[in-house]
Amino acid sequence: MRVPTAIFVMLVLAACGKMSLAQEAPAPLLQSELDEQRALLERVIANQKKNDLAQFTYERLERLEIHKGAAVQPAEVKTTRAVPAGTGIDRIPVGPNGKPVDAAAYRAELEKLERALSWAAEDGRAQREAYEKVAKKQKERSDLIDATRTAFLFTFVAHEPRGDRMLSKYRMIPNPTYKPTSRSTAIFSKVRGYLWIDEDAAQLARAEIEVTDDISLGGFLAKVYKGSHLMQERYEMAPGLWFATYSQYDFDGRRLFMSFGVHERTSYSQYRRIGPPKEALQAIRAELGKSTTANAYP
């Protein structure tokens, strides 16, 4: 069940939408200061969109730690090489150090990836339909961002150092005048949190979001309980591009008539540009020791 991931992505993207800036009493901000903050946040929006697009061309190493039920239970740990494959992400199991555990099994996974990329690089009807579905999801996400332009109020809190960088911390609370237009947008009245922005880079560096009231999903099919928590850290992983390096989901809820609890922690590292499908296909074929000159493209 990937409900927490969907909620987190939606909330973080909402946070990167066009924000309404509140003033912290008792010292109101000057209009020039508000204008500067709005200009900064517009730059953050533009950079976040650039980051989102770039992620489709970067592979990474993911270490996922899952606790199901009580947090004291032993964690399930999965380490994978995550490679963009056109219409999705292909995850190849590897050891904790990112190296193959079984050479034969790893090669078999690479050959599966090669076939997926070969298909994704073609320009047939099936491919066009698949990419249209991806574009539809991206548009739905964009529409959701548009719907949340006035869903939250953001108040500057303080400057906080992170390593050798200085971050600006903002408090995020629901806008009491906002009227939701769908079940998805109704979620925004039930969360609050903080955002940290690197002003020099105009990038979102950290987000922490807390669920303040139970959230129903799929009608009455599932519910995420009040107190659930979501967090993400982001760093510059390539010139001008900031990607997630750590995400954490801690939530409890109910699915049908069964209670559940999930605690996920994911570390992301070893980002490397592999390119769109045609370019990635050549990289994977080279890794397999196959010719990249003959039949360069399917």
Task: Please sum up the structure shown.
With 298 residues, the chain is an alpha+beta fold. The protein contains six helices and 13 strands. The two termini are 35 Å apart.
Offer a few descriptive terms.
13-stranded mixed sheet, 6 helices
Can you describe what's shown?
This protein is α+β, with helices and mostly antiparallel strands and 298 residues long. It has one domain. The protein is built from six helices and 13 strands. Strands 1, 2, 3, 4, 5, 6, 7, 8, 9, 10, 11, 12 and 13 form a 13-stranded mixed β-sheet that branches. A hairpin with a 4-residue loop joins strand 9 and strand 10. The radius of gyration is 21 Å and the shape is globular.
What's the layout of helices and strands?
Elements lengths: L2 H13 L4 E2 L9 H24 L3 E11 L7 E9 L4 E5 L9 H18 L4 H23 L4 E11 L2 E10 L8 H4 L4 E8 L4 E9 L3 E3 L4 E3 L4 E10 L2 E15 L2 E16 L3 H11 L11
Parallel strand pairs: 1-5
Antiparallel strand pairs: 2-3, 2-13, 3-4, 5-6, 6-7, 7-8, 8-11, 9-10, 10-12, 11-12, 12-13
